[in-house]
Amino acid sequence: MGKIVDRSAAADISYLIALGSNVGVDEIGPAEVLERALISLRDRGFVIRAQSRFFQTPAFPEGSGPDFVNAAAVLGSAWSPDRALLELHAVEADLGRRRELRWGARTLDLDMIAAEDLVLPNAQTHQYWREMPLETQKSAAPEELILPHPRLAERAFVLVPMLDVAPDWRHPVTGLSIKQMHDALPQAMRDEVLAL
Asked: Measured between alpha carbons, how far is 3 from 9 in angstroms, rounded to an integer?
């Protein structure tokens, strides 16, 4: 499938979005689920400014399910981050997503990674979630939108696709670019993310 990119429409905020699927729906596989998700995002009013290639990645945490197909996109919208997140969740639900098990297998995962240089809800809360130990993360989920995504710098399955669409975007708290965060990951983690 070709990239769905529309640079002609105006939108106020650029959102960095990570897409993932490791369970098919309606007899289509994970890659096709991501293609449908991109079409649904456009149909709901997002402007797709850039789209990455698709990548195969191991499930996170290790052993939690089949391999994922992951991608990244830059979406434009005049919606607030909270409203944009509701739209992402609606697309997930339309494609069979059920939020039953944290980090379990899923038909579609649309994670809002960043909204330009916004830090939400505030720097202190962001730091709390960014520094949370992995064991605590497994059972704790924030009740409000945290931006940028607190675990962004630790996840090759997000950073490798992001290199295709926003390598120079800088984290508003750490000051690191997507490329710098990617390059700081262990080579073994980066090597697990395979272009399809």
From this structure: 16
